[in-house]
Design a protein that fits this description.
Layout (H helix, E strand, L loop, with lengths): L3 E7 L2 E6 L2 H12 L5 H32 L6 E5 L2 E5 L7 H33 L5 H12 L4 H19 L7 H11 L4 H23 L4 H27 L4 H4 L7 E2 L4 H10 L5 E4 L5 E5 L1 H10 L6 H4 L1 E2 L5 E2 L5 H11 L3 E6 L2 E7 H23 L11
Parallel strand pairs: 2-3, 5-6, 9-10
Antiparallel strand pairs: 1-2, 3-4, 6-7, 7-8, 10-11
Helix pairs in contact: 1-2, 2-3, 2-5, 3-5, 3-6, 4-5, 6-7, 7-8, 8-14
The protein binds zinc ion.
The site of zinc ion has 5 residues, from helix 2.
Length: about 400
């Protein structure tokens, strides 16, 4: 998602658009260019797509503003050809909050449809002469493809209903899948709720892919994102589950080597080469914790300044290292790292420095403890041996 253009910023949220969005505008122009006047048709197509994405943007603001109401930060919303993405810094833990955030997007589309429909009916009613509902629908359908005000209104109303319904499909991590997960999580553990939602989502993705094979590339792309996105979120939830029972004080490396501001960069290079440690807490001569020197920082310094630099100039100052208490669970430590965009936290007790926890420590723990938990679960779930199994 690197190549996005920032459009504007509102309520602290950056609204960005991905370059590939241009393709969808071209597609819109192409779609309507078969009209008698090609240029007017093409321009109309561009307007239709732009308005459609205004609706998509409003949908994302539904999620984003509800999330902000629950104190979840939303740094940006990105518009892609397959729809929008509101980037939430974290998922709220309370199922009810997730439910409301997820449902807020489709709700916006339904409200828009409710506002647009009477207008569309009003404008169409002025020209429409038929007497049955079916003929009204057929008429509306033909108007939708004709560049006109009533055509535009009908198109937007219908599309908003379709958008709302499509997003409510239980295809986790789409909105409907999140609604499903949050409802399940009200009755069972979060991890199990996520596993079920992801399984249902995969089934939906397969169905969408089969449907998409008929020639709908958009649907194929969405199916792919559902499959990959679901797996990513499941892994994150399972990792968090592993981490929630471990406290910061138990994850500290008590043997960690510390360095002093008076020491040379050379010394740290030696330490990195001869130990497994990658991140070093830095102390001043009064034995106060003043910062952290991480391996990425060290590598960057060696590249630019060589071994001449001073540790104080290259370390991450202590005030930029998020602090956590010794009783904080690693799940919360992990959240804090994500929120702060930091790969290291300092464990402190009443201002006294106890040690560092790094992202490497956490991923090691996830692997080791996760593997143990998985084995325990498997052993517990194994049925007793069936004698007929031995016959072959
Ligand atoms: Zn949504």
């Amino acid at each position: 998602m690197g190549s996005s253009l920032r459009l504007f910023r509102i309520w602290g949220i950056d609204v960005k658009v991905h370059w590939s969005f241009l393709l969808i505008l071209v597609y819109g122009a192409f779609l309507y260019s078969g009209q008698t006047n090609r240029l007017t048709g093409a321009l109309y197509g561009v307007v239709v797509i732009l308005l459609l994405f205004v609706c998509v943007l409003l949908h994302e603001f539904g999620h984003a503003l509800t999330a902000k109401y629950f104190k979840v930060n939303v740094p940006h919303i990105t518009l892609l050809p397959i729809g929008g993405v509101a980037q939430l810094e974290r998922m709220p833990r309370q199922p009810l909050q997730e439910f409301l955030i997820a449902i807020a997007g489709p709700a916006v589309n339904f409200v828009l449809a409710l506002l647009l429909l009477p207008l569309a009916v009003l404008v169409i009613g002025l020209t429409w002469g038929a007497d049955s509902l079916l003929s009204l629908l057929t008429y509306a359908q033909t108007r939708m493809m004709t560049p006109s005000l009533d055509g535009l209104l009908v198109y937007l109303a219908v599309t908003n209903i379709a958008l709302g319904l499509f997003n409510l499909l239980p295809a986790f991590p789409m909105d409907g899948g999140r609604v499903l997960r949050s409802l399940l999580a009200m009755a069972m553990p979060y991890v199990r709720a996520t596993r079920i939602a992801v399984t249902v989502g995969r089934l939906m993705a397969v169905l969408m892919a089969l449907w998409g094979l008929g020639g709908n590339i958009m649907l194929l792309l969405i199916a792919f994102f559902i499959y990959v996105g679901g797996r990513g979120e499941l892994e994150a939830v399972e990792s968090r589950y592993v981490l929630k029972d471990i406290r910061a004080k138990d994850a500290l490396n008590r043997e960690a080597r510390t360095i002093y501001t008076s020491e040379s960069i050379d010394k740290v290079v030696d330490l990195v080469m001869t130990t497994y440690q990658a991140d070093f807490p830095v102390f001043d001569l009064g034995n106060n914790f003043v910062g952290v020197l991480t391996r990425p920082r060290l590598v960057a310094v060696l590249r630019t300044q060589g071994r001449e630099g001073r540790i104080v100039d290259v370390m991450i100052p202590a005030q930029d290292v998020p602090p956590v208490g010794p009783e904080t669970t690693l799940a919360d430590v992990w959240d804090k790292m994500m929120e702060a965009g930091s790969r290291v936290v300092a464990v402190k007790e009443q201002g006294r420095f106890l040690g560092l926890i790094t992202l490497d420590d956490i991923s090691e723990l996830i692997q080791v403890v996760g593997a143990t938990k998985e084995r325990d679960e498997r052993v517990a779930a194994q049925p007793t041996a069936n004698p007929t199994d031995f016959s072959n």
